[in-house]
Amino acid sequence: MPQLILPLIPEGATRISDLVTVYRSEDRWTYYMGLTPIYTHAADDHRLFRLITSMMINAGTCRHKDIIETFGVSKSNVNRALKKLREGGPEAFFQRKPGGRKGHILKPQVLEQAQVLLDHGFTRHDAAQQLGVKLDTFRKAINDGRLHEHQYVEASKARTSTDKSSRSAVDAAAAKGMGTACTRVMDRALASIGQGEAQVRFEPCLDVPKAGVLCAVPALLANGILEGAEKLLGKIRGYYTIFQILLVLAFMTLCRVKTVERLRENPPGEFGKLLGLDRIPEARCLRKKMDTMSEANAAEVWAAHLSKHWMQAEPDAAGTLYIDGHVRVYHGKLTKLPRRYVTRQRLCLRGTTDYWVNDAIGRPFFLIEKPIDPGLIQVVEHNIVPQLLDEVPNQPDEKALAANAHLCRFVLVFDREGYSPAFFARMWRMHRIACITYHKHPAEPWPESWFEGKTVIMPSGETVTMRLAEMGSLLGSGKNAFWVREVRKLTDSGHQTSLISTAYDLPHTQLAVRMFSRWCQENFFRYMKQHFEIDMLCEYGVVEIPDTEKVVNPNWRELNRSRNQVQSRMRYRRARFTEMTMHPESETDPEKYRKWLKRKSELLEEIDQHEHQLATLKAQLKQTPKHITWGELEDKDKFNRLLPGRKRLMDTVRMIAYRAETAMAAMLLGPTVDMPDARRLLQGLFVTDADLLPDMENKRLLVRIHNASTPADNRSIAALLDKLNKAEIEYPGSNLVLAYELVNSDD
Question: What is the DSSP track for 109-121?
Answer without folding.
Answer: HHHHHHHHHHHTT
